[in-house]
Amino acid sequence: MAGAAHALLEVRGLRTWFGTDGAVVKAVDGVDLTVGRGECVGLVGESGSGKSVTALSVLRLVPSPPGRIVAGEVFFEGRDLLACPEREMRRVRGADIAMVFQEPMTSLHPALPVGYQIAEAVRAHRPVGRKEAMRRAVDMLGRVQIPSPEHRARDYPHQLSGGMRQRVVVAMALACEPRLLIADEPTTALDVTIQAQLMELLGRIRVESDVSVLLVTHDLGLVAQMADRVAVMYAGRIVETAPVADIFARARHPYTHGLLRSVPRLGERCERLDVIPGNVPDPAAKPPGCAFHPRCDRAVARCSEEQPPMQREGAKSSFACWNPCVSR
What we know:
This protein is an alpha/beta fold. About 30% of the residues lie in helices and about 25% in strands. The protein is built from 11 helices and 12 strands. The strands form 2 sheets. Strands 6-7-8-3-9-10-12-11 form an 8-stranded mixed sheet, sandwiched between helices. The protein has a 4-stranded antiparallel sheet with strand order 2-1-4-5, with helices on one face. Helix 8 (about 190-210) links the parallel strand 7 (about 180-185) and strand 8. Helix 4 (about 115-125) packs parallel to helix 7 (about 160-175). The two termini are about 20 Å apart.
């Protein structure tokens, strides 16, 4: 695990809440997370766990109202982004930290050619003219393996396939050579072949550009393929973090075990996949104690009374559980 002194990104005690007519929705409720230089960290969990809100909070993109960051610190290269003026944050977004959003059609302007949109992102952060910015846009389209990039730069988003549009979004994100890329469910709505191609592309670019990656996903297969370290999130909190090999070989938190059991394995025949009973709790009405205890087959009396703290295990792993799974 990247230590605080060597972390590119360090999130401490992050809390992002949403105000509603009836209650306060605690979508992110005390997240601690680090991403080291050159590292890929997978942030995993079921839908509703708070993964995307965590990613948006790092860049202060949570819509306000109704959302607001009520507590915490987000250090990027030693600078607290939550304390920066909005003008400075606009310089950080895209230049230092870039984000690939879930749905490319909502990330691209439908009435502008994709090359123009990439060029505008370059001009927003680099002192270059229109011609040089467009040259950079065409170069980036070629770099993400879009054929005939000079021609495709003149196309509109609706003229491209879903996989092509996602590659355009990746090209836009990387056009200003950021040091951290946040990829929020980058393979959503793509077929498995295109998913594999996109993840191979991200892996190659990560090595070539020496960019750190925060990969937000519910797909453990993508995590196994790309991540160095995994942070498992449930009900707005990180419940386990460990190197990717350790998570798959000896997960300690029952929720992590449940996620792993629900994934089918090649070569194994089974009548029915394992499932985690129940649903992620309503963030406006979380149960007392450990939020996972109503769904946990290892719950003891203490689980419904006290929220477990993170416990260190060795130099690189930690988990929050009163009755963890036995480490093999």
